Amino acid sequence: MTSDPRPFRLAAVLNAAGPFLGLLLVIALFSLSAEVRPYFLSGANFKIILTQTVVVAICALGMTMIIVGGGIDLSVGSVVALSSVAGATLLVRDAPPAVAAMATVCVAAIVGCLNGLIISRIRLMPFIVTLGMMGIARGLAKWISNNQAVNFPESPINGIMALNAPDRFFPPPHGVWVAVILAVIMAVVMRQTVFGRFIFAIGSNETAARLSGVRVERQKLWIYTLAGVLFGIAGLMQLSRLTQGDPTVAIGLELDVIAAVVIGGASLSGGSGSILGSMIGALIMATLRNGSNQMGWPTYMQEIIIGVIILLAVGLDRLRRRRNG
Amino acid sequence: MKTPAALLIFLTLAGFLLPLRGADKYTIAVIPKGTTHEFWKSIHAGALKAKEELAAKNIQVDVIWKGPLREDDRDQQIQVVENFMTRRVSGIVLAPLDSQALAAPVANAVKAKVPVVIIDSDLKSDKQVSFVATDNFKGGQMAGEELGRLLGGKGKVILLRYAVGSASTEAREAGFLDVMKNKFPGIELVSSDQYAGATRESAYQAAQNVLNRHGRDVDGVFCPCEPVTVGMLMALKNIGKTGGRVKVVGFDAGTQPMEALKKGDVQALVVQNPVKMGYLGVETMVRHLRGEPVDKRVDTGVYLVTADNMNQPEVKELLNPPLDKYLK
Lengths: 325, 328
Prior knowledge:
The structure holds two protein chains of two kinds. By secondary structure, chain A is mainly α. Chain A has a domain at 53-276. Helix content of chain A is 74%, strand content 0%. Chain A is globular. Chain B folds into two domains: 21-134 and 274-300, Rossmann fold (3-Layer(aba) Sandwich); 136-272, Response regulator (Rossmann fold, 3-Layer(aba) Sandwich). Chain B is of the alpha/beta class. Helix content of chain B is 46%, strand content 19%. The two termini of chain B are 41 Å apart. Classes of the chains: A mainly alpha, B alpha/beta. Chains A and B meet through α1, α3, α10, α12 and α13 of A and α1, α3 and α4 of B.
C-alpha cells in the first residue's frame, strides 16, 4: 500500500500500546462509580486481581509461544486439571511437597511433549491434536481422582497462592511473583534468543523458515514441551489456590487463555504477538471480572463485555494486517 | 483508529453503570452455586423478600446477586467471594460449591471483617456466622423411608449420585443409604456409585448408562436433586419404565419433576424450601450485623410431596413460590 506514512506509524504505536490503553480504560471505567471506587482502587483489590490472574497469565505465557509459532493448544484447561490432580494424589500418598510439585509440572510437560511429537512428526493440525488431548487429559484427571475432588492434608503447597493479609497489597501471594518472573524470562526468550526468533520465523512463514535452515520439527517439539512446563506450573498454582485437586477445574480455561493472548495483540495466523501484551490481556479480563462483580453487574454482562473486547482486539489486528499487506 | 474503538468500549461499559448510591445501609452479596436452575431463582426471591420485609422495618438492605461466571466452577466462585471481600460489602451469604475449596476464601473474608453466612451446602470451617440450610441427611432418610414403603421393603434400587464434593447432595445420599441399610434389609442396592454430573444432559447420559446395565430388573430409583431426576426420567421413558413401573423418589421440585409427579412418573419428591433459605440467609446476616445473637445452625425444613398432598394450599405455595412477585 502506498499511503501517507504518518497514519501508518500512528497506527503502529497505537497497536503496540493498544492493550495497555484498554487496561487503563477498564480501570478508569470502574473508578467512575463513587460507591465502588474506594474499594476498587485499593492495594488490597489489586492484589486480588493479580492473584486471580496468575493461572491464566502463566498459561498465556506458553500459549503466546505456541500461537506466535503458528499453532494453537486447546488442551490447556484439561492439562491444568490433570497436573493439579496428579499433584494432589501424590500429596494424599504422603509424598514430600517438593516431589509433588515437580511431578505436577512433569505431568504437564509430558502431555505438552506428546502434543509436540504428534504435531511435528505425524504432521497433524495442532487444533485437532490438542482437541483430542483436551479430552484425554480431562479423562485421565477424572480417572486418577476417581471422579472426585482430591482433598489432601494441609501442605506447604497451599501457601503458594494463599492470600495473607486480605486488607492490604503487601505481601502478595508467592504465585504472583512466580508469574512476574516467568513473564520476564519468557519475554527475554521470545525477543533476545535464537530459539525465540525461530518461533517468530516459523509462525510467519514455515516454508521460508525451513528453507533458511530452521529445524522446524524439533523447534515445534520444544515449543509444546516448554509450554507444557508452563501449564504445569499453572496447574501447581491452581492446586494451591483450590487447596484440593479438582478434576473438573479449569473447564473452558483454554478460551480465557487464547482470549488473553489475542487481546494482547497476537494473531492467530502466527508470527506476531508479545508476552507483555498477553499479560495485559489476562489482566484486562481479570479486572473486568473483578470490577463487574463489585458493581453487581449480572454474569451475562461480563460475558458480553469480554466478547466485545475480543472482537475489538481482533478487529484491530485485522486493520493492521490490511495496512501492512 | 484507536479512538473510535476506545470510545466504543467506553460506551459499551458506561451504559451499564449503576446509579450512584449513598452508603448508610447494609450491602449484602448473595452468591449462589449457579444462576440458571429454578432452585437458585427461589433463593434469589427469598433474599429479595427479606430485603422488602426489612425495608418495611426501616432497615435498608441492598442485595447483590452474583453467581460464578461459569456455573459450578469453584475457582470462579472463589473469585466472586474475593471480589466482594475487597468491595467491602457488609456481609456475604454464600452457597459454597465445595466444602473445602471455599474454606480459605471465607476465612480471608472474615479476616477482612466481612462476615459470611453459609447457605444450602456446608463448609469445612468454623468461621461462618451461621449455616442456614435444609437438613439434607434427614431429607435423604425421608426419601429412603418413602421408597422403602413404596416397594414394600423388597426389590432392587438404584441411587444415582449427583456430583462429587457437593456436601448437600452427599448428605442426602448418605441419609438415603442409612435408611436402606438399617431399615430395609430386603432391598438390594444394585448401583450406588455412579455420578450424574452437574447438568441435565450429563445426568441423562449417566442415567442411560446405569439403566442400560440394570434397567431390566430395577424396581426403584432415588435421585438426589432436580437435574438428576429430570435426566433419570428421560432415560426411564426411553426404556418404557415410566408411569410407576419403576418407583421414582426425587429431591427438589422444579417444573419437570412436578409434571412427572402429576402424571405418576414420579411417586414422591422430597422438597426443600429455597425461598425460606434465601430469606433466612439474608435475615440472619442482618441480625448478626445489628449485633443480635444468631444460631450457628438454622434448619429450613424438608417436606415429602406426593400426588395426594400436592394440592394442599401450603404445599402449593411451597411448590410454586410467588417468584414473579420478587424477581422483576
